[in-house]
């Protein structure tokens, strides 16, 4: 029998994150504890606690990984698109829904769990703030008024979360979710234009 190979700290972290996503996907967010993760990953509890300290730290790490992946996908989509409103709205809608669907049904559960403590809510808010700033930057140039309000961006994010979650739960198709989100973004931009002209 070959001796077990030791993983570097980064390799172990990646293994634990991958296993955590697997637990959430197969058993649900409620099943994700550090003790359960240790058993599934075949390591001792101190190894898991060394990486995440507590369940909130693990949930925050999962959300940050999802957020980084989502930002990279959206950055790439925006970089390759024209600045016209219909194009930007379509690109943002497709990238948002695709990222949630790529992660599967587990991300809505992780996002919901983030609301469970002030510490996790702060992590979620920071991610949302960065995402909204990215959207504002992408959409202001496409907006007929050259402006996008915070209220409009918040409404867009609420719609994006609801539509992507519904698509992940197979309540609607991904195509329907993307189309509705695109239309919501375009409607928001039209309202911005109407308000600036009043």
Automatic annotation (TrEMBL):
PROSITE patterns hit by this protein: HTH_TETR_2
InterPro entries assigned: Homeodomain-like_sf, HTH_TetR
Annotated signal peptide: none
One Pfam family of this chain: TetR_N
Gene3D superfamilies to which the protein is assigned, alphabetical: Tetracycline Repressor, domain 2 (1.10.357.10)
Entry annotated with the keyword Isomerase: no
DNA-binding residues (ranges): 33-52
GO MF terms held by the record: DNA binding
SUPFAM superfamilies: Homeodomain-like (SSF46689)
Record keywords: DNA-binding
Record-annotated HTH tetR-type domain positions: 10-70
Record protein name field: TetR family transcriptional regulator
Organism: Phyllobacterium leguminum
Source lineage: Bacteria, Pseudomonadati, Pseudomonadota, Alphaproteobacteria, Hyphomicrobiales
